[in-house]
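During the first year of the project, the team set up a workflow for recording each protein of interest as an amino acid sequence followed immediately by a discrete structure-token representation. This format lets reviewers and collaborators read both layers of information side by side without switching files. As required by the reporting guidelines, we include two representative entries from the current panel. The first entry is reproduced here exactly as it appears in our internal archive.
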Amino acid sequence: MQGLPPEALDQVAAYFQALSEPTRLQILNMLRGGELNVGELAQACGYTSANISRHLSMLMRHGLVARESRGTAVYYRIADESVYALCELVCGNIARQLDRSAADRKAFGRAGATTGTPRR
């Protein structure tokens, strides 16, 4: 991102915003197994078709999913597989942070036990 003009940074922020909603992440996870139509996604997610369509529209705008019409149904698939590598990177980072927090809490608990400080 170094050296990008503000307009480009706006586009990067919008891309991350598309990934910032749990329902959209759920949709991306479901499409990992193959293409699905709006009704199938709605049923699997437990949301209305209108809600899923709105999320799919955002994902399409950012090039994350693609659509294909087949008769009266529209099927969606992942358009950019690299989104999964990005998500794995973020998940790994979160896991490491949680591990560090757990180790810190554990060390704090040991310190309280050795100093006689009551633990909560």
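The second entry, processed by the same pipeline in the following quarter, appears below.
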Amino acid sequence: MSGPGDVPSEFLDRLRPICGRLPETYEEPAWIGVRWRIRARTVAHVYTPDPDRHRVYARHLSGGASTVMTFRVPFEDLLGLTAGGFPFFRAEWGGNVAGVVLGDHTDWSEIAELVTDSYREMAPKFLAARVAPPPQAAGPAERAG
């Protein structure tokens, strides 16, 4: 099982400023990896799954240890985001949960947009309304194709 220390610092260093700008969001160690929450709801969860122990990840990871982040997606955007495959996938729990494999290929502007959208899904409406889209963010149609 992964612990908070198993998440490469390069990913935490990128995610902390993205998540930290969202009102009332806080970081905490999770049962595996690290997560950011608003109240008691998880906005983003980053971890290094063991594909032998968690077989759901085996088809999404390319050999060796890979770090993934799960997050919430507006249901109407889920298929468009995950249909293209790597690095995105649909989690096998929750109706609107997606995952992304992080690595050198990661577009951190897109991750900022996805985390912001996840926050909007999970935060109380009055807090979600206070968050502007990240600068130069691509819309769902642009991500899909």
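For the second entry, the following points were noted during internal review. The chain is about 30% helix and 20% strand. The longest helix spans residues 108-122. Both points are flagged for discussion at the upcoming steering committee meeting.
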